[in-house]
């Protein structure tokens, strides 16, 4: 096999991740965070404390915790975030990311290099990649 053989070419997380990631401080209210998500057109926000990623809030978190559990809409996102944050670095192999998402049952995987959020990998990104290849 030569190096151009697709079987030998490893796809890395950075090759297909989205760079449009929204992050908010943990004190931001659920209302403000969900408005931001709607305005920007993203399905999740990364929650930061002291500028370090500590959690994620998805549309599902809003639906379950705000609607189903009747949390007030001015609840700080730290109370509704999923934590500890399950993440991966941008140089990881895509198969590792896929396994992690499957075993941990997450559809959005923040990509973090040196304690900085650099992107996000979603189950839709994975599906599109595997359909195209």
CATH domain class name:
Alpha Beta
Question: Cα-atom Rg, whole angstroms?
Answer: 16 Å
The assembly state of the depicted protein chains is single chain
Report the span from N to C terminus. 18 Å
Shape: globular
Count every beta strand, where a strand is a DSSP E run of 2 or more residues. Answer: 5
What is the average per-residue confidence, as pLDDT, rounded to a whole number?
Answer: 90
Strand order of the largest sheet: 1-2-3
Q: Which structural class matches the secondary elements?
A: alpha+beta
What is the string of SSEs from the N terminus onward? Answer: HEHEEHHEEH
* CATH superfamily annotation: CBS-domain
User: What fraction, in percent, of the residue positions are helical?
Assistant: 25-40%
The CATH topology: CBS-domain
**Major sheet, described briefly?**
3 strands, mixed
Low-confidence stretches: 1-5
**Percentage of residues in strands:** 15-25%
| CATH architecture tag | Roll
Number of helices: 5
Number of domains: 1
Outline the structure in words.
With 133 residues, the chain is α+β, with helices and mostly antiparallel strands. It has a single domain, classed as CBS-domain. The strands form two sheets. The protein has a three-stranded mixed β-sheet. Strand 1, helix 2 and strand 2 form a beta-alpha-beta unit. The longest helix has 11 residues. The two termini are 18 Å apart. 22% of the residues are buried. The N terminus is likely disordered.
What topology emerges from the helices and strands here?
Blueprint: H1 13-16, E1 23-25, H2 30-40, E2 44-49, E3 52-58, H3 59-68, H4 94-104, E4 108-113, E5 116-122, H5 123-132
């Amino acid at each position: 096999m030569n190096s151009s053989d697709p079987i030998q070419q490893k796809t890395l997380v950075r090759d297909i991740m989205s760079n449009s990631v929204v992050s908010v401080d943990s004190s931001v209210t659920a209302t403000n965070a969900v408005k931001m998500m709607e305005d920007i057109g993203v399905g999740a926000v990364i929650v930061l404390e002291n500028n370090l990623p500590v959690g994620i809030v998805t549309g599902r978190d809003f639906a379950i915790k705000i609607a189903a559990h009747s949390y007030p809409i001015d609840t700080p996102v730290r109370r509704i975030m999923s934590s500890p944050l399950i993440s991966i670095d941008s140089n990881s192999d895509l198969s590792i990311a896929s396994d992690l998402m499957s075993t941990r049952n997450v559809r959005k995987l923040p990509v973090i290099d040196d304690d900085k959020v650099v992107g996000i990998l979603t189950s839709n990104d994975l599906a599109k990649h595997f359909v195209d290849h």
